[in-house]
Amino acid sequence: MKVTQLLKPNVVDTTEFNNLPPLHKDVVSDFFNQVDYDNNDVVAEVETTIDKVATQHNVNTDVIYNYIEKETGE
Questions:
Q1: How many domains does the structure of the chain reveal?
Q2: Which of these, 45, 59, 61, 73, could form a disulfide with 39 (CB 3.0-4.6 Å)?
Q3: CA distance 55 to 38
Q4: Could you report the per-residue pLDDT of 35-61, keeping only the tens digit for each?
């Protein structure tokens, strides 16, 4: 088995994402994989998914919120 087969491809390929520690990369990746992009209430869906992913990984929701703020520049 090759090392490249063991590594998961990144969901996001940006400087901010690449600067995250490995645990935070997993959290952000899971967020992007779990969010329902077809939901009509986007804000509620994003907030619910952030809460769910943060709980699953036992991290503060600020991990995802801070990442989003850095990516969007807001």
A1: 1
A2: 45
A3: 23
A4: 988 889 999 999 999 999 999 999 999
